[in-house]
Amino acid sequence: MPKRFRLTRRFPVAMTEDGYRGLKRFATEAGLDEGEALSFLFENFESVTDDEVLAVKLRQFNSDLEARKR
Questions:
Q1: Distance between CA 31 and CA 24 in Å, rounded?
Q2: How many Cα atoms are found within 13 Å in the side-chain-facing hemisphere of 28?
Q3: Distance, CA of 24 to CA of 37 (rounded, Å)
Q4: Is 49 left (phi over 0), alpha (psi -120 to 50) or beta?
Q5: At what angle do helices 34-43 and 17-30 cross, to 10 degrees?
Q6: I need a surface site. Which of 8, 13, 37, 62 has the fewest CB within 10 A?
């Protein structure tokens, strides 16, 4: 029997415009709303990310973060 899909947590999220556009694009292509798309991505995080690429992108994001906050 499939697991029932319930959204049990709501939390305020601050996203960059680029991040939000990417989320909306992914959700639209997948036929999901933004909350469902985020749930899918985080429930399947290990299988939808490449560890090496993730590490590089995370270092790049963190190095630019302070400048982007200004």
A1: 10
A2: 6
A3: 9
A4: beta
A5: 90
A6: 8
Q: Which amino acid is at 51?
A: D
| 3 state SS of 11 | coil
Tell me how far CA of residue 37 lies from CA of 20, 30, 57, in angstroms.
12, 8, 20
Q: Which residues contact 32 (CB under 8 A, 6 or more apart)?
A: 40
Which has more pLDDT, 10 or 41? 41
Please give the pLDDT value at position 1.
Answer: 58
Distance in angstroms (rounded) separating the CA atoms of residues 26 and 41: 10
Report the percent of the chain where pLDDT is more than 70: 97
Q: How many helices (H) and strands (E) does the chain have?
A: 4, 0
